[in-house]
Amino acid sequence: MTLSSNFKDLLSEGVRTCWRSPANIALIKYWGKKGHQLPANPSLSFALTEAYTITRVEAKLNAAGDGPRVSFTFEGERNQPFALKIEEFLKELLPHLDYLPYVSLTIESGNSFPHSAGIASSASAMSALALTLICIEQQLLDIRMDDETFYRKASNIARLGSGSACRSVYGGYTVWGKHPDIAESSDNYAVPIDFTPGNLFENIKDTILLVDQEPKKVSSRAGQQLMNYHPFAKARFEQAVTNLSKLKKSLIENDWDTFASVTENEALSLHAMMMTSSPGYILMRPNTLNIVEHIDKKRKQNHIKVCYTLDAGPNIHLLYPEEETEKALQLIAELKQYCSGGMMIHDKIGSGPENKHCK
User: H/E element holding 25?
Assistant: First the structure.
């Protein structure tokens, strides 16, 4: 790449951008890889609103061309494990972003929720970073992309940092992984769903019950690698394909009972894969199970439209339609006793990332 005078002039002043990108909660779980950071099965998620990462990036000229050079802080402090992950991610992006060798990047990031507690923090963090990098590319190289091209490119490179991050560059419901029932679905990037959900699911709410806020003992990346030789892997991947078809049908037909059944089946299957790995491990905690049992008991008694899911961690996501909020909040008040410090995050389906003004 030849450095133009305009490129140098822009970088001498510093190019800045800032994005807020949400975590997402997978209903159909991605668990297992093939090829280079590609999913072994398709997944379906929705973006959250209150659980997000804000990432600010400033790019300046590194004329030596041996970059990218990186200065990284997380929530105001230098974080070496994060910094190493960011540097590894940026090296992966050298074939995709020609300008990277010629920049020094100052990256500041922070979450609205506890990191590494099973709320897809890597998804929001890596998607926010991917969006800033594509935004900087447009400014430096004077590239104009339509929205579809912009977000697909961001989704594709976010995937290289964290698989589920590719779903967080969109709002609403998103699918990642090739599936016969989803038009234009791909293993390389996520796509918004190609259908309109029923009214029960348009404004679905998610109260995240924080059972344990400590970092996970086994990372999602390490857990996914254990699927390579898992005796039940093939059956699990087939199950996910079937469940996605069932879930799509339930969303279109406004069928809460099927939605709840499939969503909970996926959550329990995910944790079953962890427990039956070699070595096996358990991320759920006693209060995770107490919450599950309490939910099951109360909805049978009171006929509440609620269901639960879990990511790769101990915390419960309690899902319910907006119209069910009053009843759900009564149940949530009872479940508070099982949360660490009574902590929870009241969230809902969100509209996706935002390009924020850098301060």
Answer: strand 15-28
Q: Which domains does the chain have, with CATH numbers?
A: 5-194 (3.30.230.10), 199-348 (3.30.70.890)
b/e map of 17-30 (b: 16 or more CB within 10 Å)? bbbbbbbbbbbbbb
* pLDDT digits 0-9 by tens, 50-62: 999 999 999 999 9
> CA 296, CA 281: separation in Å to the nearest integer?
25
In this prediction, residue 359 carries a pLDDT of 42
User: β-pairing, 307-309 with 316-320?
Assistant: antiparallel
- For residues 332 and 344, the answer to whether their CB atoms sit within 8 Å is yes
Task: Report the predicted TM-score, pTM, of the whole model to 2 decimal places.
Answer: 0.94
**H/E stretch holding 71:** strand 69-74
Q: Which amino acid is at 29?
A: K
Q: What is the DSSP string of 340-357?
A: GGG-EEEEEB----EEEP
Retrieve residue 134's tokens.
């594509």
- The pair of structure tokens assigned to 73 is 């802080």
Residue 120 has a pLDDT of 63
By the 8 A CB rule, do 48 and 206 touch? yes
How does 248-259 read in b/e, with b if 16+ C-beta sit within 10 Å? bebbeeebbeeb
Peptide bond into 68 cis (omega under 30): yes
